[in-house]
Amino acid sequence: MLVHHFLEYYARNTPDAPCLSHGDTHLSYGEVDAAANRLANGFLDLGIEPGQRVAVLGENSIEHCLLFMAASKIGAVSVPLNYRLASAELAFVISDANARILLVTEGVERTLEALRDLLPAGVDLITGSHPDSLHWDAWLERFPATAPRVDVDRYAPFIQLYTSGTTGNPKGVVTSHYNLLQLTLMNLIATPRRPQPGSAGIVCAPLFHIGGTGSTIAGIFNGQHTLLHRVFDPEQLVDDMENNPVTSIFLVPAMIMAILKLPDIDQRDFSQLQTIFYGASPISETVLRRAIEVFQCEFVQMYGMTETSGTVVNLTPDDHRRALAGKPDLLRSCGRPSVGVEIRIMDPEGKAVATGEVGEIWVKSDTNMLHYYNLPDATADNLTEGWIHTGDAGYLDEEGYLYLKDRIKDMVVSGGENIYPVEVENALAKHTAVADVAVIGVPDDKYGEALLAFVVTKPGMSLDVDEMVEFCRDKIAGYKIPRQLQVIDELPRNPSGKILKKILREPFWQAQGREIG
């Protein structure tokens, strides 16, 4: 089976059933399949061959979903781009992916203007109406709505999502059809109340994240009506939850907290909602109790990463009930492995440690990525005989629950966004006043973690927060820019010169019991 087979199944059997909604646009399964066929035939007309990359840039849109399905039908690989990146960052990703097509949706015109001169040669540009590009509506009408006939292997790559890297450049994580379908099956088994045709789900996580992509594919897999939100808007989300048969949704805890702060939240009707899936950071007991009071539904925590195609460990509704019935420490756990998933805790030499001891978390699953695109050394470093090295430090308890303690690879997760400090440090190091710099994540009630920059300035020079933020604006994405700054005389280093970030983090995290948001 391939990802688009589920779309085609429902298009044959229930063509008039609602498939995708976005704003005022509502498309049935039959309409989505026909549009995806037109787009697939358009790609073939442009010479796209199996394995070639087609990229899409913009906020969440139906065009994203059509591109995913069209690429699936002809064996091409979708590359959804993070529209929040600076133009230079986007240009790097497009070039690194060897993208043959760039589809740009509405709302990112300013980004396109800045990006246009940086695009590699040979990229076909598709927009709504931008000059010197193929115009989406008129171009798409030229092609038939019949399905193209292209043989695609189930182990062929389906999507390439970019995740930040410890070297400072993002890496393309290549995920197959088989990976995504196994993920969907695993999550279906882990879902206490399984979604089905006639129900609806909301996707408000960005589609350049595995959370957004995975949720969208799961909706089509289950024959659901997917309400696709352009961006996360708590008021719009609550309106859609009230007015549609929404039974499940994926959120990060920061989103849950934003919804709970709405002034009329206690008067809203969530009677159809069955399950809230959440991930990227744990949920506090206070927030969980308040959320259960408001939503009156079950909660499932999900742990995974782009390299595992998403969720591989779940904290189930029963686990949440145990936590609230006198075992609150369970809320600091990620849960236990999903079906078919193996977890090992390893020491630096690659040997398993004893139960309760902290080491690096390794994961073996049918959902593990194929490789990093064109990075054989990085792939070899992070994928050993089918085991993904997560870069997270943690331990397993006697019951098999997984607990996170720290990030070996120094990543910060802020509001569900993965940020590698080295990218931020590289940008700040270009400032004329900066002699040395280190960036860490510190606890934040709203986002789980927030960035804090430690800067050593050059003699006679100074730097303040406003200047730092303004300097970074055209160099890195806005969410990567620190809003906190400490100017210090010297960064702590070990004898080999490595910055001791543990010392920098310790005063901020010692009351948390862990060094991870």
UniProtKB/TrEMBL annotation:
Single GO MF annotation: acid-thiol ligase activity
Pfam families: AMP-binding, AMP-binding_C
Source species, domain of life: Bacteria
Keywords noted in UniProt: Ligase
Domain (AMP-binding enzyme C-terminal) ranges: 423-498
Database matches in Gene3D superfamilies: 3.30.300.30, N-terminal domain of ligase-like
Tagged with keyword Ligase: yes
Protein name from the UniProt record: Long-chain-fatty-acid--CoA ligase
